[in-house]
Amino acid sequence: MTTPDLPHIASDLLDTPSLDKLALPAGATHPPRILILYGSLRPQSFSRKLALEAERILQRFGAEARVFDPHDLPILDSVPATHPRVQELRALSLWSEGQVWVSPERHGAVTGVFKNQIDWLPLEDGSVRPTQGRTLAVMQVCGGSQSFNVVNALRLLGRWMRMVTIPNQSSVAKAWQEFDEHGRMKPSPFYDRVVDVMEELFKFTLMVRDRSDYLVDRYSERKGAAEARALAAAAKVVEVVEAASVAEAAVPVKARTCCASGAC
After folding, report:
1. Which SS3 state, helix, strand or coil, does residue 103 take?
2. Which residues on adjacent β-strands are paired with residue 136?
């Protein structure tokens, strides 16, 4: 069904958003589940140290946070997706309601270690999308002066993975001087910004997590699903007709003529 002023839109598939539809479902009381990924295998990895600092802050807010260790994660396509480490990463992504991505900047871009983790997360796995609708915070560590190349690249990746990337972000310049000998981040404006980002992620995750299915529900996909159902229904009709034809052909001619005349 269409409307005269919008003839190319199937009105029965067009959803009109409302506050009622965005209302928080009852019973959503569990702590937000946050997955944290970082992008370096160095023993003194500053992206790892920042990831652990983010984990502590999120736990202070009440989140259930988990940091994925990228050690021993094979290079994409070097092993089947059934590899235990790949399955662990994908399971954590499905478990999460929000994610934090932290990468060093290398040659003006994210590291291969970090990108490999994202590449192992498919856009679709059957009818499930492991990242769609999840919130995302992006951060980077710099060896020298402050840069935003990585956080910009991470935002692009987040959009490609159909995630809800929060407005705030963090870029820690000269990261080597921002952590103490115990791996804890020193007090500074950089640290305050990290707290800001985690606070914002926590808030956005609370707002989005129970509405994510509705927020990412698309007209084009509903239309495609309706067309697929129509094709499937038509195929079943054809199958029924063909089956009936085969059954009729199996009946002897005399028997078919007799029954048709009502003599039997």
Report:
1. strand
2. 99, 165
Crossing angle for the helix pair 189-208 and 46-61, nearest 10 degrees? Answer: 50
The pairing of strands 164-165 and 170-172 is unpaired
Residue 218 corresponds to which tokens in the numbers above? 């698309």
Tokens standing for residue 50 = 């920042």
Distance of CA 4 to the CA centre of its chain: 37
Nearest to 162 by CA among 122, 195, 117, 132: 132
Residues near 146 by beta carbon (within 8 Å), at least 6 away in sequence: 171, 172, 173
pTM: 0.81
Residue 49: φ, ψ to 5°: -60, -40
Q: Show the tokens assigned to 45.
A: 């990895």
What is the greatest pairwise CA distance in the chain?
100
Q: What is the pLDDT along the chain (264 residues), one digit of tens a residue?
A: 666 788 888 888 888 888 888 886 666 689 999 999 999 999 999 999 999 999 999 999 999 999 999 999 999 999 999 999 999 999 999 999 999 999 999 999 999 999 999 999 988 776 678 899 999 999 999 999 899 999 999 999 999 999 999 999 999 999 999 999 999 999 999 999 999 999 999 999 999 988 888 888 888 888 988 988 889 888 887 666 666 666 666 655 555 545 545 554
